[in-house]
Design a protein that fits this description.
heterotrimer; A mainly alpha; B mainly alpha; C alpha/beta; B: MetI-like fold; two-stranded antiparallel sheet; C: alpha/beta; six-stranded mixed sheet; 9 helices
Chain lengths: ~290, ~250, ~250
Amino acid sequence: MIARAPGTDLPVLLPAGDALRARPDQAAALGWTSRSFTPRSLASLLALFVLAVLVADAQAQAAGAPRESVVTMLLKWAPLVFQGFLFNLLVSVLAMALGSFAGAALGLAQISLLAPVRGASWIATQFFRNAPWLVLLFYCMFLLPFEIQILGLTIPLPAWLKAVVGLALPVMANVAEIVRGGVRSIPATQWESAEALAFSRRQTLWMVILPQCLKRMTPPWMNLYAILTMATTLISVVGIQDGMTTARAALVAEQRLELFIPMYLMLLSWFFLYCYPIARLTLRLERRFQVRG
Amino acid sequence: MSAIEAFFQRLGTAPGWNFSIVYDAFDRARFLEGLVTTILLSLTCLVLSIIIGIVGAWLQGSTLRVTRRIVQGYIQFFRNTPPLVQLFFFYFAIGSILPRSLNSSGQMEPMISNLGWAIVSFSFFAGAFNVEIFRSGIQAVPRTTVEAAEALGYSRLGIYVHVVLPLAFRICLPALNNNLVNLVKTTTLAYAIAVPELLYAAAQIWSEVFNVREMMNVLLVTYVAIVAVLVWAMGRWERAMRIPGYST
Amino acid sequence: MAHELGEPVVVATRVEKRFGDAIVLREISMTVRRGETICVIGPSGSGKSTLLRCIDALVPIDTGSITVEGVEVNDPKLDKLSLRKRVGIVFQQYNLFPHRTALQNLMMAPLHVLKQDKAQVEARARALLAKVRLSEKADAYPGELSGGQQQRVAIARSLCMNPSVMLFDEVTAALDPETKKEVLTTIRELAAEGMTCILVTHEMGFAREVADHVYFTDGGVIVEHGPPRELLLNPREARTRAFLDQVL
């Protein structure tokens, strides 16, 4: 039976989960075996991309005019679009770091013994989890000041930094959920034995509970990072130059209809090549920790 | 103008909180239209993505390896690429190669509107997650229950329809609800292709009336409210589907 | 049990079954006649449960043949429905459908698989529930029933398909002693009415009273078989003796 912690929608790893265990007999009865996506299938995806490029190229040649081929155009623009893509990755790393720190603090606040702290942090978590990422991004872009004054120093806040904060907010809320779920998944017996050994609550948390949680929290945390990386494309909607805007600018510059599909497919493949290994690693870690748990 | 509207208009001058959507009929109409569009978009994509999820989970059990590969490819593609880029891919890249037709005012318009492409893109996006959710729900149905159905003479389709799906659905419900909430949040992406949903309507209003702060707050509160209503409704549904004595 | 034994209903001839490298059934031959009650006893892992599943084509056999009323189980073009109509099997873990009431569990297969008339099926189902003394639990869900009650519902469910042969796979192993008795009583009555039954069981007392013939299996082979009085009180083989010494 799939086990899930009440009140959280994230795949919290509970000790009793046998949902991920392979069931070959049932699979046979239903006439199906689940096959994972092998490197061979990955190759066929890339083959599809190459095929699309070649078809587009053929289309261009059929048009007759002696213009650049699709492949040359792609290669011409690829470095620039790739730079934009790297900027997406930079934003994702920064937002993840910022959001994880804030989220860990928020998550621990949710298990505080003080009711007002618990209540306030619960409200904050629910609020930022349920708000659309794009709206939060707009919020930060428009309403954060363009410079802040601390201790007499004037620090300018460039647009992309505001975007990082805007993306870090939902990350913070989701990390808080992961942390809270992780802590709650440790059996109560651990708390009891620590208490019997005269550990204080803070000592129990830092020396007994959190080290055990860390492993369980890693797969959902990695999953969140993959989601965040894909969400960084939202910054193009609020006017920041990233991989998406560069790709669209390239398409506008070239004004060639056959370039549209290959260009978007190229950008999609880059994201795929970055996020897919993360997804596989997450799956592998999940299985490993389930078995041991 | 009613008392409420007058109150909000006064609020606009002092202390300067301009909630034009309350007192201005045009803005109000635009805002409500955006809200309706968001809700309709969410519901349509929800229904379509569930259908895609059920069909996909069924196809994953196919004996043909090529079918299974195609379904897996679809899932991995839509789960590991940004939904915004998917949306643009559908609207700009594929939309540009589809034939155009003459509309009533004599202009060439694309076959599928931006709203249509938003529905297609989000349904496939959410559908990819649903296939995984349904698959794990199906796998969580105990093997012995399936064996009992087989022993009673049910065909593979019969087992799926009468035994596995009802049980798997109840197991999946929490994850499905989570997916629905994500779908509502994802509809904001349609802003990027000028679909007149809630975010787009709000952006139009604040670009004219210059009440960004107020509109942002209204937006946040509205979305959180929509999601809260959804979560409550889903909770009610979950409780209604509960089987006495069977713990999920 | 003294009543007329009819023509052979289940004939197994030199059946072999492997799982990977392990040989689970080896040179199994047995003949079961109509109205006969057979008990199969033996240590765990001796292949008894597998044999029952092979008879109902839930597990395919590698060599040999099993025929049920003339239908060859090993036939690649076997119409599984025709086999499953004749054979009812009750498992150790009851395997009722948790999302349906007891009455619905009984009625489901005749309605969906055999496509029989609803009124007739309901009448038959209620009669069977009365027979297993659970009429008042017709509208209860499996989660609300005790283990013994669930097992009796499972027996009634298989009977509702009007089989010619009933297979019981250690049906009392998961029950406590009091509830065991209720289920064994039900099976005893069934056997007395003339149903052909094959039981895999550890209940030696039951085997002695009710069985017409007892088979002892060990390591996938039939070591010895005979009437219960002979086999249980005066076994010929040393292995049988060793097993009975342990168990009785």
